[in-house]
Amino acid sequence: MLIAAGAAPAFLSKMAAAATANPYGKRGLGAAPTGFMARIRVNNQAKPPVDWIDYCHTLGLGGAETSAPPTDREAINKYRAKIASYEMHVIFNVRLPNIEADIPAFEAGVKAASQIGAYGLHAALTPRRYESLDSIEAFKKSFEKNQQSVALAEPVLRKNKIRLAIENHKGWRSAEQAAWLKRVSSEYVGVHLDFGNNVSLCEDPMQTLDTLLPYVISGHIKDMAVQLYEEGFLLSEVPLGDGFLDLETMVKKLRQKDPNMALDLETITRDPLKIPVFTDKYWATFDDSYSPLPGRDLARTLTLVKKNPPKKPLPKTSGLSPSGATETGRRKQSGEHSIRAGEPRALDAAWTCSRIRSCT
User: Fold this and answer.
1) 209 to each of 214, 256, 336, how far by Cα in Å?
2) Pick from 188, 328, 357: nearest CA to 267
3) H helix count then E strand count, the chain
C-alpha cells in the first residue's frame, strides 16, 4: 500500500531515498492511477496523503496521468517546477464540455494544463457498451453526445495548443473511432491507445493499433490474458509478459510514430471482466450498417482465446481484504518482482525495456 495512515512524511522520505532514477526522463514509463487504485484508496485515508506525482517519482517513473490540474497561479507554478525537476511527463483528465455553458470551466483547466507544461489531456468518454447500453439507438445517442462534446472542446484545445487523446474505452470499435477522428481532422484531437480494451469488442490488439495508429498521441500499456467461460470469454490485465499481447511489436510501432510518445502503465487490479459474446445483450448495440461487428471477427477472437490459455490463474480480488487486494495489485504492477517494505521495485523505463526491448 502507499502508506500506513498518519505515516506519510516518514514513508515518503524513505521512498525518496530508495527511489531509482528514471534514465529516460519524460520518455520513461509512466503510471495511470486506475492501475494503482488499491494503493490510492489507502493513501486517501492518510494524514497527510502522499502526493501522486511524488509517489510516481519515487518509483522511478517517467510520467503520470492524473486528475484535473490546479488553476491557482501559485499552484500552477509549483506544479510546473515539480514536474520539470522530476523530468516527468504529466497527462491531465479535464472534464470535457457537454454544452456551451461548460466551456469556460473546461478552458480554465486546459489553460492551466498548458501553463504547467502538460504532455496533453486524456479522456475516457464511454462505459462498456455491452453492459451499459441496451440498443443501437442508445449507442447512437451516446456516440452523438461524445462527438458533440469533442466538437465543443476542439477550438479551446487549438487556442491553447494542447492535445486531447481520447481513449478506446470499450465504447467504439477502432474503425468507428478512426472514422470519427478523420472527420474531426484536428492535430489537437487524437487517440489514447489502450493496448487491450478492444479485445472486448472482438478485435485483435494489433488490428486496433494499426487502425488507430495515425491518430495515436499517448497510450495505456498493459498485457492481457483471456479464458473461455460459459457466456463468452474472460479478459484480465496481467503482469507484462504473462499475457498474449505482442508488446515488443506494439511499442516499436508507437515509438516509430513518435519516439517521445507518453506510455503509462495501467494494470488494473480487479476480477476478470466478463465479455458475454454468447448472449443477446452483448449484440444489442451492434448494427450491420451503423455499427457492424462481423461474424468473422467474433470467430477470430474466439480462436485467439482458445489458442492463448492463461499462463497462470487469472488474478481475482473478490473475497480479499483491502491489504490482499493491494498485494495482488503490487504483484501485477511490478511484474511479480520483489517489493520489500521501504524498497519498492522501480517501474521505470529500464525495467520495462527488460520486458520490451524496443521501447527505447
Assistant:
1) 9, 13, 27
2) 328
3) 14, 11
Q: What whole-number distance in Å separates Cα of residue 154 and Cα of residue 202?
A: 30
Residues 6+ apart with CB under 8 A from 133: 127, 139, 142, 284, 285
Name the nearest CA neighbour of 97 among 107, 88, 87, 89. 107
Yes or no: say if 112 and 70 are a contact pair by the CB < 8 Å rule: yes
Smallest CA-to-CA distance from 168 within 145, 197, 140, 189 is with 197
**What's the pLDDT score for residue 23?**
82
Note the pTM of the prediction, 2 decimals. Answer: 0.87
DSSP state for residue 271 in the 8-state scheme: S
Provide the grid cell at 185: 481532422
Q: With 0-12 CB in 10 A as exposed, 13-18 as middle and 19+ as buried, what is 275?
A: buried
For 283, how many CA atoms within 13 A lie in the half-sphere containing its CB? Answer: 12
Query: Is residue 308's pLDDT more than 90?
Result: yes
The mean pLDDT value for 320-330 works out to 61
Asked if the bond preceding 310 is cis, omega within 30° of 0, the reply is no
Report how far apart, in Å, the C-alpha atoms of 136 and of each of 143, 147, 281 are: 10, 16, 11
- Taking residue 180's Cβ as centre, other Cβ atoms within 10 Å add up to 17
DSSP of 63-114: EEEESPPP-SHHHHHHHHHHHHHHT-EEEE--PPPSSGGGHHHHHHHHHHHH
Amino acid, single-letter form, for residue 332: K
Burial of residue 139 (number of CB atoms within 10 Å: 0-12, 13-18, 19+): buried
